[in-house]
Amino acid sequence: MTVQTGEGGPRPGSGSGPGPGSGPGPGPGPGSGARPRRRDRHGRGLRGRLVPPGVPLYRSRSQQFDDLVLEAVARLEPRWETELAEVEFAVQEVPDADTIGDDGVPLARIVRGSPDTRDPGNPATGPRIVLYRRPLLARAEDEDELSELVFDVVVEEFAEILGVDPEVIDPGY
């Protein structure tokens, strides 16, 4: 990957002429002594992380959200390991149109499993908790709030599966 440092003159359409984000003095060029650009041509700054996708540190936003769900489940595992073993967790971008009701956009839903083991074509499955990534992201201000919101939703849905209050699952709820 090549990083543009402002050397070698302006490129067409790069917006490296006078305007927001271009440093004081003449435009970038050999020997001009101009500072490298710190913002994009719209003046909003860099977007995303500065890690190339091939590096293990790189995680997409959806992968980071998946990690938050796994962390929420891991927080419950020491106390509820046997009950959690039967539950699947999934992440979906947005709810289906048929799941949106008068109450607004849901943050998660439970897909009840099928306990019938007699039909080999339809094997028994446990319940599944599906979390909706975009509605959860829209309700959180920052990463910490998103982490707590995901945990609260996991606790609420898991409590509904077990038929208990969320305070039983997590006393700090």
Annotation keywords:
single chain, 173 residues, alpha+beta, Zincin-like, 2 domains, 4 helices
Question: Nutshell version of this structure?
Answer:
This protein is α+β, with helices and mostly antiparallel strands.
Helix and strand layout, with pairings?
Layout: H1 61-84, E1 88-92, E2 108-111, E3 128-132, H2 133-139, H3 143-162, H4 166-169
Parallel strand pairs: 1-3
Antiparallel strand pairs: 2-3
Question: How would you explain this protein's 3D organization?
Answer:
The chain has 173 residues and is an alpha+beta fold. The chain has 2 domains: 7-47, no CATH class; 61-169, Zincin-like (2-Layer Sandwich), CATH 3.30.2010. The protein is built from 4 helices and 3 strands. A 3-stranded mixed β-sheet has the order 1-3-2. The longest helix is centred in the middle third of the chain and has 24 residues, at 61-84. It is elongated, with a radius of gyration of 24 Å. The two termini are 46 Å apart.
Helix content: 25-40%
What's the N-to-C terminus distance? 46 Å
CATH class of the largest domain: Alpha Beta
Integer-rounded radius of gyration: 24 Å
Count of the domains: 2
Structural classification: alpha+beta
Given as residue ranges, the uncertain stretches (5+ residues, pLDDT < 50) are 1-23
Q: What would you call the quaternary organization?
A: single chain
Note the main sheet: 3 strands, mixed
| CATH architectural arrangement of the largest domain | 2-Layer Sandwich
* Shape summary: elongated
Main sheet: strand order: 1-3-2
Mean pLDDT figure: 78
* Total helical elements: 4
User: At the third CATH level, what is the topology name of the largest domain?
Assistant: Zincin-like
SSE string, helix = H, strand = E? HEEEHHH
